[in-house]
Specification:
The structure holds two protein chains of two kinds. Chain A is of the alpha+beta class. Chain A is 49% helix and 17% strand. Chain A has a five-stranded mixed beta sheet with strand order 3-2-1-4-5. The longest helix of chain A is centred in the C-terminal third of the chain and has 19 residues. Chain A starts with 7 loop residues before the first helix and ends with a helix. By secondary structure, chain B is α+β, with helices and mostly antiparallel strands. Chain B is 34% helix and 30% strand. In chain B, the strands form two sheets. A seven-stranded mixed beta sheet of chain B has the order 1-2-5-4-3-6-9. In chain B, strands 7-8 form a two-stranded antiparallel ribbon. In chain B, a hairpin with a 2-residue loop joins strand 4 and strand 5. The chains are: A alpha+beta, B alpha+beta.
Chain lengths: 186, 148
Amino acid sequence: MAIEFMSDEWKKEYAAELEKRKAAPPPYIYFTPEWVDLFEKKIQGDATYKEVAKDWEGSVCLHVEPNPDMGLDIDLYVLLDLWHGDCNWAQIVPTDVGEAGDFVITGSFERWIQVGKKQLDPVKGMMQGKLKLKGDLPAIVRAVRAATRLVELSSEVGGKMPDELTPEETQELRDVVTELSNKFLN
Amino acid sequence: MSSSTGIGGGPEIKLAPGADEVGLAVILADMIKSNLESKPKRIKDFNALKGPIYIFADDADVDMTMAFGKGSLTVFGGRAGKPILEIVTDSETLLDLANISIKFGMPFFFNKEGMEVPIKLLKRQLKIKGMFFHPFALMRLTKVMSVN
């Protein structure tokens, strides 16, 4: 039975789950809760982001489309709560919360992996239609440096890329996502 | 042909078939639509634009054409028609062009973002074919594209 998103119980359970998962040392698998936690810390500690995003207002959601072959059976939404250069929090959220983000950047798992490996520049990716952007376009164009920096930071976090996992690790990712989905995302 | 917008009976912005697969085309069509909604004074500039304008983001290898028709815009993926202006540059510079400020109804080149434009033109990192024959079209395009 899923817990109500962002209720006290949800926060407590999510924090406990995160601590449990962080008991193992990095590198973490891309887009797992523990990886998102490292991403959050990376944004919070980045002076460049703080500078280029000082006028930024609004949440950004990274939407990863499913790829069952890589262990992702559902749409995954990572929401970044951002305000004037600060990152209040970043976490995996239910679909309706993610879709309601001020800016939603959507891509297939393969595209996000390319971004993570610095094989796909996010601005170029958007121009090519490989990453799709939803939200007030003029606002994101005004803050293009901040948006680009965010994606750069996601690649700086590093981690185990899902296309390089062993079959056992892929199954582990599938299990994590399923468990997470049942407990926290419905 | 899919209709992207029709602003309260005002300018109509359409994506030609297949253009919705071209990110650059979708981004620029949406951006112009948002700009005209939030800055209705620029509809006058939009309505004065006539003819195709070709844009090529060379680093992303993506091109598109905006065919203006005095109050309407059809956005095509790739080259279409005989452009009056051709803009060739990288993806980031295209977004920089959209960040040019407009002051007193004119593009403003005397701040950080604006100064980049003549510098990149001189360095040939930004090429604009037709700018001397169609300066007013370029000025109006800059205004309808500017998010500032």
